[in-house]
Amino acid sequence: RKEVEQDPGPFNVPEGATVAFNCTYSNSASQSFFWYRQDCRKEPKLLMSVYSSGNEDGRFTAQLNRASQYISLLIRDSKLSDSATYLCVARYQGGKLIFGQGTELSVKP
Amino acid sequence: EPEVTQTPSHQVTQMGQEVILRCVPISNHLYFYWYRQILGQKVEFLVSFYNNEISEKSEIFDDQFSVERPDGSNFTLKIRSTKLEDSAMYFCASSEVSSGRLEQYFGPGTRLTVT
User: Fold this and answer.
1) Which listed site, A90, A91, B45, B63, has its alpha carbon 20 to 30 Å from A2?
2) How many of the other CB atoms lie within 10 Å of CB of A2?
3) Beta-strand pair A103-108/A11-14
4) Which of A25, A41, A43, A52 to mutate against chain B (most B CBs within 10 Å)?
């Protein structure tokens, strides 16, 4: 089983839509979680951290369910500029990041 | 805003040659990492580095790989004898950690092409 698993998509949505990404992780020792976004052939850019209580940053909301080992990212009012690959990431003690395969989002006008 | 920088942006080398990839982490960060991403695949952890020594390394990081912090600002990844399968994007990352900030920030990457 993959350590961090995501639906690869692609998700094709119109501007203004709400879209949700899901992610599961297999290692309960994972300490903390993040969502990164990656544009084609560029570096992963930190979108937001996900802590036990979940958190919101503008149009983005991340949730963590440790019991189900499940993480989600909700994007409201999608913009064209949100088109990217969204990476679900687990951090282990010591700092090692384990990345999911990524979910591709394409926002169309 | 402080950034991680990497040089070169693209390196082409012949199989069997040595390459050194360079990174300048964010200045007040204490933890440094290398990751790689083969085209079309996920980002993979290679090594973490703290207090002038390797903290953890993956199975990928075999004897052909080494890391060094030669001075107060640079962090390097050396591949001694490159193989075709070493062709990938190599990302350097750094994090602060000491203040509880666990986030890692990535540099723009070096695209390594081994021919």
Assistant:
1) B63
2) 12
3) parallel
4) A43
